[in-house]
């Protein structure tokens, strides 16, 4: 009845208030996370399926809040986008990632480093110069840096995105479309994107051996990517069976827990040595 409904609404709203308060607190604390040394990076290998070579490692940011413990990037990256902190966050991730790439090189491991950019970063006209300076500072060739941009970020303003991607590519970096299949881009729009790599979203990959609809989507995305001259990678590879199916479908690369979870920099170089041995 009406009373129950009112109580329900009150409960619901207090739940929302709590979420809202947590978000406000997190947004405020995030501004200090770098100076308080609460951010770190983990790296997850991207493996070439045919050769079992580790081609790239994707940098994934981690935040360990002093009181709250680990906060997931799915929660705090959107907050960073809303508060404007994303510019600083992205620069931190780029700087630390290139330092790690350099370190791996000194250990005899030549890996590409993949960094996630947000939609807001794409609108940042100063970013290409920052990246160029960062590459030079760490003495990393631009070809070793892969920028991952989500399909939905690219579709916000297609003309602008295309121009920005050309600028980034002119420096020599590689570009990947992330979370592919979730962003409703048309073939015509996709064709205009000067990218090198297509990442099939994990939501299609995780159940592809049980769900034939998912398998069909993955198979046709691999074909689409190859027809456009792109390298195709599947993320969310959690089982041996899904890796075997991807190999049969001709997918170029794989990433996921079955191969390795995200690891600290040193752990990743140890893993890569074992894996290729
Ligand atoms: P993403 O770029 O799609 O990254 C892949 C996510 O899937 C990562 O979650 C990774 O840990 C997780 N993952 C890897 N293998 C598997 C698997 O086999 N199964 C499943 N279920 N998941 C797997 P994570 O690290 O929590 O990051 C979540 C998202 O946060 C990322 O999605 C990305 O959108 C964003 N993110 C992370 N780091 C950064 C960053 O430095 N900058 C920006 N802008 N966004 C970031
Ligand atoms: Ca990514
Ligand atoms: Ca993804
Ligand atoms: Ca994602």
UniProtKB/TrEMBL annotation:
Occurrences of domain EAL (ranges): 23-276
User: Might you report a single GO cellular component term?
Assistant: membrane
Output one GO BP term: signal transduction
What are the protein's UniProt keywords? Membrane, Transmembrane, Transmembrane helix
Instruction: Tell me one GO molecular function of this protein.
Output: cyclic-guanylate-specific phosphodiesterase activity
> In its UniProt entry, what is this protein called?
Phosphodiesterase
Q: What is the organism field in this record?
A: Arenimonas oryziterrae DSM 21050 = YC6267
Q: Which residues of the full protein are shown?
A: 499 to 775 of 787
């Amino acid at each position: 009845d009406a009373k129950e409904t009112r109580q329900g609404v009150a409960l619901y709203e207090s739940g929302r208030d709590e979420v809202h308060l947590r978000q406000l607190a997190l947004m405020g604390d995030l501004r200090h996370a770098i100076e308080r040394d609460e951010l770190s990076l983990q790296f997850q290998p991207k493996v070439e399926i045919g050769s079992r070579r580790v081609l790239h490692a994707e940098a994934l940011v981690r935040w360990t809040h002093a009181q709250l413990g680990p906060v997931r990037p799915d929660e705090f990256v959107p907050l960073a986008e809303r508060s404007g902190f994303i510019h600083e966050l992205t620069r931190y991730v780029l700087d630390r990632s290139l330092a790690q790439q350099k370190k791996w090189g000194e250990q005899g491991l030549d890996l590409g480093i993949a960094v996630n950019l947000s939609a807001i970063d794409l609108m940042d006209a100063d970013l290409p110069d920052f990246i160029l300076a960062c590459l030079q500072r760490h003495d990393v060739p631009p070809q070793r840096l892969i920028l991952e941009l989500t399909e939905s970020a690219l579709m916000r303003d297609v003309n602008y995105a295309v121009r920005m991607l050309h600028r980034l590519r002119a420096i020599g970096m590689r570009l990947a479309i992330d979370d592919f299949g979730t962003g409703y881009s048309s073939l015509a729009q996709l064709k205009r994107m000067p990218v090198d790599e297509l990442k099939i979203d994990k939501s299609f990959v995780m159940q592809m051996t049980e769900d034939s609809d998912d398998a069909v989507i993955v198979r046709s995305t691999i074909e689409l990517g190859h027809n456009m001259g792109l390298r195709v990678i599947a993320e969310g590879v959690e089982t041996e069976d899904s890796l075997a199916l991807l190999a049969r479908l001709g997918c170029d690369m794989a990433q996921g827990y079955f191969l390795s979870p995200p690891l600290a920099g040193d752990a990743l170089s140890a893993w890569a040595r074992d894996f290729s041995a």
